[in-house]
Amino acid sequence: MADxxxxxxxxxxxxxAGCTAALYAKRYGLDVVILDxxxxxxxxxxxxxxxxxxxxxxxxxxVELGQRVRQQVENHGVEIVAREATSIExxxxxxxxxxxxxxxxxxxxxxxxxxxxxRSLNAPxxxxxxxxxxxxxxxxxxxxxxxxxVAVVGGGNTAVEEAxxxxxxxxxxxLIHRRDRLRADPHISRQAIxxxxxxxxxxxxxxxxxxQTEVESLRLHDTQTGQERLLSVTGVFIAIGTIAHTDWLxxxxxxxxxxINTDIHMQTNQPGIFAAGDxxxxxxxxxxxxxxxxxxAGYSAYQYVSRHRGQEYGDYPEPGPAAAEQP
Length: 327
Known about the structure:
By secondary structure, the chain is an alpha/beta fold. It has helices at residues 16-27, 62-75, 138-141, 157-167, 186-194, 287-309, 321-324; strands at 5-6, 9-12, 32-35, 79-81, 85-90, 96-100, 103-107, 109-112, 117-118, 134-135, 149-153, 172-176, 198-201, 204-210, 217-222, 228-232, 235-238, 242-243, 255-256, 259-260, 273-275.
């Protein structure tokens, strides 16, 4: 155990949920560290404009909001370590041991906030042309296709938002959806339908992404008639949903369709392990819900650590009228 770092709380994931949970825990006085395998920010860094988060009447880019959240948590003294948690196992005194390829961490409590990742289309050519015309983030790669003809695959909020973003910089955007109506919110659906350089191809699915070294075309089929169509594009942005990478948690915490089950306190079926944000089994995955989850998780982790110490929630009052009366 000589090379093991000991803290009170480990937050796994440095997206908006992970950073918020760590911020709350730190303000409660916990010794906390964040582990994240990649650049901090999570899915928020791929969102062009966040318009439904309170406090920003003109909206804010996902990148800017992500950077602000990261800066705030670092200003409070929380260390973000670029390490991937590979497994979690119980330790003899009720603590949890988190393994990574670069060292282990021992903690009383853990908050898992690893978010979700884009779902693949699994069409021929997708893997081969990834990074050469196949993208999963319009705000990351859209500038490469300025003035060109591109396609977006999907019909939910993300797909429509990607199409609207690309329509500002591309000559034309095809929005390919396998049904006859969009699943996106009515407000942004209307924007896409009314946009002159967005053409929605209804009842269609992608069978192949074609090209020698870069994307040249898409082979589609009509889901109603079976009729095939070849669509010439130089880029395709896939936005068909997300998946949670929780294979490493199988057998440890209770999962539902790959997402982590929790109670209202963000507690999993394992004492001392909590989850927050998009990784959680929840009916809505938005910035606002991730932050709400994280605030609760941070408070719940503080309560758990306090009990483990033999204290009753430290010096903080429990929520309720009595807490509101404190100076």
